[in-house]
Each structure stands twice: as structure tokens, then as C-alpha cells.
Amino acid sequence: WLRKRNRQPLPLDIASLDAVLLTHAHLDHSGYIPVLYKQGFRGAVYTHHATRELC
């Protein structure tokens, strides 16, 4: 159920987002970032360097 839900478009205009704050590298968080880009997100992704290395 959650996998299907996570693949649904978000109820907002993705292209209007300025940035995403990624707090940690769990796949249920970082794994959605490619989906955001496919849906038009072009903003910055802010995260800690240790999180960035894991993603």
C-alpha cells in the first residue's frame, strides 16, 4: 500500500518547490528525490555531508 502511495503524484506543484531538506538517508526519504525530479523539481537538495555520501 505504501509503495503504491509513494508513487502517486504529490498534491502540489512540484516545480514550485525551491528546495528539499533531506534529514537522513533512509530510502523512504531519499528514494523519492528522483521521483521529484521526474515530476519537474529543479531546486536544491540540502543535507548533511554524511547523508549525501550515503545517497
UniProtKB/TrEMBL annotation:
<dbReference type="GO" id="GO:0004521">
    <property type="term" value="F:RNA endonuclease activity"/>
</dbReference>
<keyword id="KW-0378">Hydrolase</keyword>
<protein>
    <submittedName>
        <fullName>MBL fold metallo-hydrolase</fullName>
    </submittedName>
</protein>
<dbReference type="InterPro" id="IPR001279">
    <property type="entry name" value="Metallo-B-lactamas"/>
</dbReference>
<feature type="domain" description="Metallo-beta-lactamase">
    <location>
        <begin position="5"/>
        <end position="52"/>
    </location>
</feature>
<dbReference type="GO" id="GO:0016787">
    <property type="term" value="F:hydrolase activity"/>
</dbReference>
<dbReference type="InterPro" id="IPR050698">
    <property type="entry name" value="MBL"/>
</dbReference>
<dbReference type="InterPro" id="IPR036866">
    <property type="entry name" value="RibonucZ/Hydroxyglut_hydro"/>
</dbReference>
<dbReference type="Pfam" id="PF12706">
    <property type="entry name" value="Lactamase_B_2"/>
</dbReference>
